[in-house]
Amino acid sequence: KDKVVVITGASSGIGAATVQVLAEAGAKLVIGARRTERLAELAASFTDGQVLYQQTDVTDQQQVKALIDLALDKFGHVDVLYNNAGLMPLSEMAELKVNEWERMIDVNIKGVLYGIAAVLPPMIAQHSGQIITTDSVAGHIVHPGTAVYSGTKWAIQAIMDGLRQEQAANHIKTTMISPGAVNTELFSTITDPKRREAVEADEKNNGLSASDVAKAVLYAIDQPANVAINEVLLRPVTQER
Ligand code: NJP
To answer: Rounded CA gap, 184 and 12, in Å?
Structure first.
């Protein structure tokens, strides 16, 4: 309950809800995202010093390392890193939105790798830890329009399972949180207005709430030392695929 948890993409949606749920459970948090005013507002709702924040763009390796270093500096160790930052500018590949493909690769894959690179040395040294990443139902299935987004989440499946195998002997747990539709701001990264409106309507009407997902994160963290929850896959009950 008093674990030190670092969260990226903590300024809205699933990340912000997880800050709320974990801080209420007694965790100490170090949170990052680009929108610092949102982070400041979140941190201010808890006791002084329980939730620290720092501006962090996960596409910048030095900034990700600085976020982990802040946690090590202030709290002495990191129990959990939650790589949650992500974006989902859906489009069909023939639209050739190559810049958007690159953004997804930079944030959804490279951002996660930078988090792993920053936290692995201290976790190996302390012989314990947990690395969590927000994956997706889209890491298991693909639809027209989700190919590149799904590709980034499938990549995370491979990276996280490889990490699990390599670090089992060091007692480092890996967890993927894989939701279906969640009512957050994620649709706002879709540039095609028709597709954006359709996804927005679906997330708002049928999606899980961000706090439903945050409770799954708490469940995965709040386990005995010998139990690793490697994936939690959760859909709204009405979502078929
Ligand atoms: O969306 P949203 P979610 N550097 O837009 C941050 C996955 N997921 O909570 O930098 C650092 O409210 C951004 O912060 P800011 C999804 O793939 C979702 O739904 O201030 N941070 C914000 O805090 C993603 O991995 C659904 O703009 C960056 C956060 O990311 C995760 O859930 C379904 C950043 C995005 O919050 C959280 O997304 C599913 C950067 N360069 C998986 N770029 C769903 N909502 O339906 C963005 O299966 N962020």
So the answer is: 7
Distance CA 208, CA 234 (A): 9
Which region holds residue 18: left if phi is over 0, alpha if psi is between -120 and 50, else beta? alpha
**Percent of the chain topping pLDDT 70:** 100
In-domain check, residue 241: no
| Two structure tokens written together for 239 | 């979502």
On the question of pLDDT at 1 being above 90, the answer is no
Q: How far apart are the first and last CA of the chain?
A: 35
Whether ligand 1 lies within 6 angstroms of the CB of 34 is answered as: yes
In a domain, 239, yes or no: no
The pLDDT score that the predictor gives to residue 94 is 97
What is the pLDDT at residue 2? 86
Closest atom of ligand 1 relative to the 181 alpha carbon: 46
Tokens standing for residue 155: 């990549």
Query: Of these residues, 82, 114, 149, 219, which one is catalytic?
Result: 149
Number of folded domains that form the chain? 1
Q: Is residue 240 part of a domain?
A: no
154 alpha carbon – ligand 1 mean position (Å): 17
Residue 137 Cα: closest atom of ligand 1: 48
Residue 58 lies in a domain: yes
Domain that holds residue 32: 4-234
- What is the CATH number for 136? 3.40.50.720
